[in-house]
Amino acid sequence: MSGYSKSKWVCEVLLGQVREHKLASITIVRPGLIGAHSVTGECNVRDWLSWMVRTAQTLKLATTIASDALKSVFLHLVPVNYVAQTIAILSLSHEVPIKIVMM
């Protein structure tokens, strides 16, 4: 188990204890890869995926990558506006004391 996985587990255990003592309502959101806004196209130009795409374009590798070995590889991105809307809705919902949402 990686350090990230261990720290995530510890955090969930601690949040579970908070829930058990009824100190707070807890929502954990794990959006995965966050992509550009679905309408405006705005995105984080400093994240690793943006750098990788820009580098592939600069090195003229984008068409080679797309047409060769990675034909069956897909990146599943959730638009940033969907992530924001989901977090807003979940933060206002008090139906379940603890929620873990995987997007």
Describe the 3D structure.
It is built from four helices and four strands, in the order αββααβαβ. It is of the alpha/beta class and 103 residues long. The strands form two sheets. A two-stranded parallel ribbon has the order 1-4. A two-stranded parallel ribbon has the order 2-3. The radius of gyration is 18 Å and the shape is elongated. The mean pLDDT is 79.
In short:
The protein has 103 residues and is an alpha/beta fold. The protein is built from four helices and four strands.
Distance between the termini: 22 Å
Series of H and E elements:
HEEHHEHE
Strand content: 15-25%
Characterize the biggest β-sheet: 2 strands, parallel
Q: Structural class given helices, strands, pairing?
A: alpha/beta
**Strand neighbour order, sheet with most strands:** 1-4
What would you call the quaternary organization?
Answer: single chain
Count of helices?
A: 4
Shape: elongated
Number of strands: 4
The rounded Rg comes to 18 Å
Relative helix content = 40-55%
Unreliable parts: none
- Mean pLDDT, to the nearest integer, reads 79
What secondary-structure arrangement, pairings included, does this model have?
Elements: H1 3-20, E1 26-30, E2 33-35, H2 48-58, H3 62-67, E3 77-79, H4 80-92, E4 98-102
Parallel strand pairs: 1-4, 2-3
